[in-house]
């Protein structure tokens, strides 16, 4: 079902529209329909969380655990969890 729609578009843009659409035999309405379909079908890629992207790739050393900053806190946290997992497995 088609619906009539009134649009307000810059006059310079309207003058540009007839060229490409007439070459393909399209009306301005068909051109807008195509543009809206393309815009609505273009889905954004799913964003993965930082932890999913980098899981298992960051390796902390003993020196990292001695640091007094965010990296040190993360290294200590990872080492504590690794120790707890090892104890649970034994």
Task: Describe the structure in brief.
This protein is an all-alpha fold and 90 residues long.
Q: What are its keywords?
A:
single chain, 90 residues, rod-shaped, 0% strand
Architecture overview:
This protein is an all-alpha fold and 90 residues long. Among the domains are: 17-41, no CATH class; 59-89, no CATH class. Helix content is 62%, strand content 0%. The chain contains six helices and no strands. The chain has helices at residues 11-16, 18-23, 28-41, 50-54, 62-66, 70-89. The protein starts with 10 loop residues before the first helix and ends with a helix. The model has no long low-confidence stretch (mean pLDDT 78).
């Amino acid at each position: 079902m088609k619906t009539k729609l009134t649009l307000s578009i810059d006059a310079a843009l309207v003058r540009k529209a007839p060229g490409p659409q007439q070459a393909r035999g399209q009306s301005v309405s068909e051109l807008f329909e195509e543009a809206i379909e393309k815009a609505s079908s273009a889905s954004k890629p799913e964003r993965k969380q930082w932890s999913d992207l980098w899981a298992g790739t960051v390796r902390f050393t003993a020196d990292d655990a001695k640091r007094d900053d965010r990296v040190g806190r993360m290294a200590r946290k990872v080492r504590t969890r690794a120790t707890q997992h090892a104890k649970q497995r034994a």
